[in-house]
Amino acid sequence: MDAVSAAAITSFLISYGRHLAGVAGAVVDEGVTQGLRSLWEKVRGRFSSDPQASGALERLAEQPENQRRQAAVEDHLDEIMAADGDFAAALSELVERLKATGYPTIQVRDAGALAIGGNVSIKGTRQVAGRDITISGPSTGGPASGK
Question: Hey, is 123 helix, strand or coil?
């Protein structure tokens, strides 16, 4: 079983946070909901000994779309998973079970234009803004592509 990153775990927690907040974007079957709940409860149990981590998870439940709250949970998870291999392994096992239910695992955060299995091209005359951008052509305005 492969180790799962704190970012991946956080994406699942965000999904369950949406469910808790009543803002789930799609209908999820009971098996998936139970898997997300198990993961949430495992993290909540581990965070309970740290008031800051516990508070971060509570705030994520209130506003799952808030990127600062997402990052706070991810940061706490990253530190705890690095220090506690058994906890990290237990989370990986829960994620594997969740994947077996057919839950989609593609999660994109902090992205602008996005293409999965393709390219995104932006043409401008002087300026391009975004993330992970490769710029080619003369400085007066060549094509730019986002990766």
Answer: strand
Q: Distance between CA 83 and CA 132 in Å, rounded?
A: 30
N residues, the chain: 147
Residues 83-122: tens digit of each pLDDT: 999 999 999 999 988 888 776 554 444 445 555 555 655 5
The rounded distance, in Å, linking the Cα atoms of 128 and 26 is 33
CA–CA distance, 89 with 2 (Å, rounded to integer):
9
Question: Edge-to-edge, what's the strand order for the sheet holding 120-123?
Answer: 120-123, 143-146, 133-135
Say whether pTM exceeds 0.90.
no
Q: Using the Cα atoms of residue 10, residue 16, residue 22 and residue 27 in order, give the sign of their dihedral.
A: positive
| Structure token pair of residue 63 | 């506003």
